[in-house]
Write a structure and sequence with these properties.
7 helices, 10-stranded mixed beta sheet, alpha+beta, about 30% strand, about 25% helix
Length: about 290
């Protein structure tokens, strides 16, 4: 499958590549789209795939033979075999019927591949309205380190290994399992991830962000990878989340990162924090069942 870039680029409101996620407009987008299609027949990670740090093989692949591509819209389906088997159709284009066509294709392919879930993903530019139901829209955020890391944290932040009693992190991880910290703690115990930054309230781990790691992108620039980030509910509103975020940005700047990309739930706490910290919105990624 070869993409006609004169067709795809004009309808790409957000720089988002199936199976890879958000990228920058400055990245070699055409090459990335071609690469994920060429890689579809394997279970290997591309060199710049952020998910390679978690697993030994790539579980999501483009269903290359089912791509629909013309001058008005492009539909790119993927199959994810990690967790509930899921087909997702990425819709680039907003002609009448685009989402319906994407949903129809998702259901058809889900049946053909024995997937219990069928989804459609679509994209809106940063100047589009933000009135989304919670859990549907995420905002793609860009932190550019060209102007430095930003303001210093106002609360002391420690590396997990500096905690007086590191085992206390297990309590935090269990309570925040829904935010991914139980999974992260398992990797921390294996010693396979970078630093995890924490903030204490007395002797209690109140919040954490990590792991802190960078990876070269497709253009060869160091990218600060997304982190698990959370504060226990009873300790929110005390500035701990902001302190953790700012400490993470200092870490990224000090370790040579050029930028960070992440997705935040529209209207959520992280979304509001990123806006207050001056991050740039690259647009919105929306998902729903087909």
């Amino acid at each position: 499958m070869r993409f006609h870039w004169g067709w795809l680029e004009p309808v790409m409101t957000v720089p988002y590549v199936p199976t890879l996620g958000p990228v920058r407009r400055e990245d070699p987008l055409h090459d990335l789209f071609e690469a994920v299609v060429e890689n579809a027949a394997t279970d290997r990670f591309l060199p710049h795939d952020k998910d390679a740090r978690w697993f030994d093989h790539k579980a999501e692949r483009v269903l290359a033979d089912a791509i629909e591509h013309d001058r008005h819209q492009t539909l790119i389906p993927t199959l994810n075999e990690r967790g509930p088997r899921t087909v997702k159709v990425h819709v680039y284009g907003n002609v009448p019927g685009s989402l319906t066509a994407g949903a129809d294709l998702a259901r058809k392919l889900a049946a053909a591949h024995g997937a219990g879930r069928a989804k459609v993903a679509w994209f809106l530019g940063p100047d589009q309205p933000e009135e989304y139901p919670r859990g549907v829209g995420t905002r793609v955020q860009l932190k550019d380190f060209a102007d430095g890391p930003g303001e210093a944290p106002g609360v002391r932040v420690l590396d997990y290994k500096q905690l007086p009693e590191p085992e206390r992190f297990a309590v935090f991880a269990d309570l925040m399992a829904g935010d991914g910290f139980a999974f992260l703690y398992g990797r921390m115990q294996e010693g396979t991830v970078g630093p995890v930054l924490t903030v204490l309230d007395g002797a209690t781990v109140a919040g954490a962000i990590g792991p802190m790691e960078t990876l070269s992108d497709a253009a060869g620039r160091a990218r600060l990878l997304p982190q698990y980030f959370g504060v226990r509910p009873e300790y929110r509103g005390l500035g701990y989340g902001r302190a953790l975020w700012r400490s993470a940005m200092f870490w990224g700047h000090q370790h040579g990162a050029a930028y960070q990309l992440l997705q935040t739930e529209v209207g959520g706490a992280s979304d509001r924090l990123c806006a207050a910290e001056g991050l740039t919105s690259l647009g919105f990624v929306n998902q729903a069942g087909a």
